[in-house]
Design a protein that fits this description.
Shape: elongated
Number of domains: 1
Strand content: under 5%
CATH class: Mainly Alpha
Number of helices: 7
Largest sheet: none
Order of helices and strands: HHHHHHH
Length: 156
């Protein structure tokens, strides 16, 4: 029988959604910047981003909850990797939108992509379902890297 611990679940969701909301607030006006820069043909409209990110942060929070409550001796390393990727995820929009440092943002995104891959690997060793919940996030990061690279090349 599946037992859900409500407080740890809400805390996990609060951490991920809170980080996303904080980054969005700090980088407010990002839709204006997004509208002003040259983008590749596959760039989605700005309205897509908050919808996708909300779903991804929910999946990340559920995944985090699964690892936090696993009791695994490998949990601490996985949680540190999660924290590292969440921090990089928080920093990226500040560098991209606020500072308009597209090339530096791309470097951060590559580091984020590698850190997320490592986190997924660690999550898989503890609880495969937690790793699977991160796959949409990893795919979105891959797409984001394509977009970021295109912005670098189109906005020289």
């Amino acid at each position: 029988m599946l037992v859900i611990k409500l407080k740890p679940l809400l805390a996990s969701l609060g951490i991920t959604l809170g980080a996303g909301a904080a980054a969005a607030l700090i980088s407010s006006g990002s839709t204006d910047i997004y509208a002003d820069i040259a983008k590749p043909a596959l760039a989605p409209p700005a309205i897509v981003f908050p919808i996708v990110w909300t779903i991804l942060y929910l999946l990340m929070g559920i995944s985090l909850y699964m690892i936090q409550t696993s009791g695994s001796p490998k949990r601490d390393r996985a949680l540190k990797a999660f924290g590292a990727q969440l921090l990089l995820n928080f920093i990226w929009p500040l560098v991209f939108f606020n500072m308009r440092q597209f090339a530096i943002a791309l470097m951060i995104l590559i580091l984020l992509w590698l850190t997320a891959a490592y986190m997924i690997y660690l999550f898989y060793k503890i609880k495969p379902a937690a790793a699977y919940l991160q796959i949409p996030y990893f795919l979105w990061l891959t797409f984001a890297a394509y977009l970021n690279l295109a912005v670098v090349l189109l906005n020289k």
